[in-house]
Structure formats: C-alpha cells, structure tokens
C-alpha cells in the first residue's frame, strides 16, 4: 500500500468526496480506492447501490493508467468503455476498489478491476478501455 503521506496521492474529486471515496494506493499500472459503507450509499435492499461499485471501479481503473510518478505531471483519462459484473454483496463495512492496467498503448489503454471488502469478499469485477486526454 502507498504511504498516506505520499505527495502523489490526490485528494478526491467532488463526486468521490460526496461518496466518501478516498485514494489509498497509486503506482505504475495500479490504483486503489476505499470507502466506508454509509447509510446514504444503500439502495432499497439495504446494500450499496450498484452505481457506487461502478463509480469506484471506473475511478480505480482510470487512475491505474494515469500514474506518472510526478506530482506536477497530471495525466487525465476518459472512459471509453466500462463493463461491470456484479457478483456478491459485501460482508464487511469497507469497499476496496483496485484497478490494474493490463495493456494498450500511449493514448488508449485497457484495465481490469476488482471490488472487494475488508473480509476479502469479491463483490464486483470490471473491465475498461480508457483514453489519455491530450
């Protein structure tokens, strides 16, 4: 896991702050985000809304291809395609999204992601295609 004092760790965007999502790891071809399960994230079935899972996976996978190693050199990405597979419900209280860059080139890249909880329960997986903004 990345040191929480690492200057490369970015603060959350407005949507991530609203959802309580924070970056907890970031390195070449990898990103990790976490969120405590809070009442406002729940759907009618009293489990986190699927859109929360999709947002966390989209974010982790996009950041996995955006790492530059330099705080001043921010690489921004756009989601071209996003597939989410919903597999289970959380058993714990913490959602953990991890994204990995698995291929592509300088402008377009491909990712895979996993959403788990602190018990290790696999909740959702994702695949994405992203483009680096000019």
UniProtKB/TrEMBL annotation:
It holds the Pfam family 4HBT. One of its GO terms (molecular function) is fatty acyl-CoA hydrolase activity. The keyword Phosphoprotein does not apply. The keyword Ribosomal protein does not apply. Gene3D superfamilies: Hotdog Thioesterase (3.10.129.10). Residues 49-123 form the Thioesterase domain. Keywords: Hydrolase. Belongs to the thioesterase PaaI family. This is Uncharacterized domain 1-containing protein. The lineage of its organism: Bacteria, Pseudomonadati, Pseudomonadota, Alphaproteobacteria, Rhodobacterales.
